[in-house]
Amino acid sequence: MDFILILKYLVLGLIQGLTEPIPISSSGHLQIIQHFFNIKTTSLTFEILVNTASLLAVLIIYRQDIYRLIANGLGYFKTKSPENTRDFKFILFLIVGTIPAGVIGVLFGDDIEALISDRIITVGITLIITGIALWLIRNLRGRKNDGDLNLKDAIIVGLAQAVALIPGISRSGATIVAAMGRGMKPETALRFSFLLYIPVSFGVMLLGIKDMINDPKLGELAVPYTVAFLASLIASYYALRWFMGIMARGNLKVFAIYCFVVGGGVALFSLL
């Protein structure tokens, strides 16, 4: 097995895992690395595996919240207690928030990708946009808890997630900015953002299973794919844990500055 090939997939898996949970755009960083360092993979199987690894990390971290939502959501049909009612509504809001990205992704996902896939300057510009959005909400400290959310909150955050289909627009960044802009507490915004990530990511995984099974290089690249998956899983887990601490301390301006620097650098070098 080619060591350089395994190293390439290790690097790409680590980049996906490190950048997926934090608001700096994993898709944008993968494009940057592939463009400037000539580390490329056009495999849909790779994308499915590393995204599934990030999904698994989110499921592990939020497993208690997921269990509680399922138990109380089902319990709502038996006993409409305040806790069951709150979690049942929260589930409904997650469903509503998933719809925009799901519909736009299915209908226009390929068109969006084709439109900007060969223009790295677009990633630089969208990273700067992400930075501006993060900067604007850096000092917000809302008051809304899980039980205070409403339908408008879910729709706005869902639309923000749909906008993040554009590489360079961070999914976590867009949804957290929208959630905090709607007055959610940082911990509520973070939880809603990543629970909203689960159905979308799960849908992408299901839609891509057929392509992955039919991948002619699946056997040949089994080891690099496994390395990328494990790298993405481990990196996603620790990156999200770290980001949860950052959110608790309110240091989002660090990510805004990072997006300004990287986005500006990418835009500049793409013009040279």
UniProtKB/TrEMBL annotation:
Location in the cell: Cell membrane
Pfam families: BacA
Record-linked InterPro entries: UppP
GO term, biological process aspect, one: peptidoglycan biosynthetic process
Transmembrane segments: 43-62, 90-108, 120-137, 189-209, 221-240, 252-271
GO MF annotation terms: undecaprenyl-diphosphatase activity
GO cellular component terms, semicolon-separated: plasma membrane
Catalytic activity: di-trans,octa-cis-undecaprenyl diphosphate + H2O = di-trans,octa-cis-undecaprenyl phosphate + phosphate + H(+)
EC number: 3.6.1.27
Enzyme class: hydrolase
UniProtKB keywords: Antibiotic resistance, Cell membrane, Cell shape, Cell wall biogenesis/degradation, Hydrolase, Membrane, Peptidoglycan synthesis, Transmembrane, Transmembrane helix
Bilayer topology term: Multi-pass membrane protein
HAMAP family linked: Undec_diphosphatase
Function: Catalyzes the dephosphorylation of undecaprenyl diphosphate (UPP). Confers resistance to bacitracin.
Annotated family: Belongs to the UppP family.
PANTHER family: UNDECAPRENYL-DIPHOSPHATASE (PTHR30622)
Name of the molecule in the record: Undecaprenyl-diphosphatase
